[in-house]
Write the structure tokens for this entry.
Amino acid sequence: MTRIFFLFFVLLPFSFFGQLLQDTQAKHAITTGLDHLYSYEFKEASQQFSTLRSKYPKHPVGFLLAAMQLEQQYFPMKDHAAIGKQYVQLLEKSYSLSFHLYSKNEQDLEAAFFCAASLGFLAGYEADNQNFFKAVSYAKKAYSFMKIGLKNTENQAEFYYASGIYKYYRISYPEIHPIIKPLMWFFEDGNKKLGLSYLEAGTKKAVFVKNESLFYLGYIYNKYEGTPAKALPFSLELIKAHPNNYWYILQRAELLSLTGNFEGADLFCAQLEKSKSPYFIGSAMTLRAMREEFENRNLNAAESLYLKSLSYPWEERFTKDIRGLSYLGLIRIAQKNGETAKARKYTQVAKEYLEYKNSLIEFSRITGQ
């Protein structure tokens, strides 16, 4: 249950619209700060966000942006306890300020969405740290504000992303995890086709959530639709604009590998290997192993890299499925080598990591399960 809350709310962006954008200096600080943030220029981003907090001490914008920076700078947050406390404080301050604005005017859509975003990030953080009661509490509060946005999607371009994510995941997630279907009465109905169309609109019409729309539209086409080739144009737009963003580098490397362009993925794998993050390094090894297996036909080298990738940690959002790709590779290699017991061992473990549509199809095909 907490995972579904996590998916619906932690992916919510902070949406900016209304009276704040009437201040040209504030708009410039936000757009400049976001550009620095997505480019991993954290010092410069921090300066812009600090300016916003100083100029708008009673508005949540600066606090929420600062929290977003910490999320990317210290990914995954669960590995940084001290920073995590700072992150929670920023989000709680953001929610307190936004709720104060909302309580004064319940027609204030800007305030409602700052409430939803602040609570959503808090729910995701608590779920990551296994604090499920707190996660559920935050998520329920967030949903009440999110419903306001769902009713106003086509009136404001910055709503397209959050509404698109909701409409799509409301259907797709229970399809993969039938156990949660009895809990879904709590949520308004979804529509996958409409969700995708909202995200498409977000990539073209939104300003502040354009990058999120591009990233998660590609993510959905790869993971849930099983069409990684459709994700490539969105990934390309992101990587051109922000070539140093490791989330975007990882997505690009994976999509190119899954579509058989291992040579194109090579540059991005090299970038991941130069990072200081064991999550990105381990993922790069999986993708290198795929090249050895499928392009070079070197099963020994592929097996070695797959096994080495498993010595690195994984996290829920972006690298869990890549770990599943390693186990699929090890199953295939063990089967080709006639190592039945080893294949059976990997088959049992692989089930914990597989959620990609194509991975699930292949798992069923090669294991009969």
Summary: Residues 1-18 have pLDDT under 50 and may be disordered. The chain has 18 helices and no strands. The radius of gyration is 21 Å.
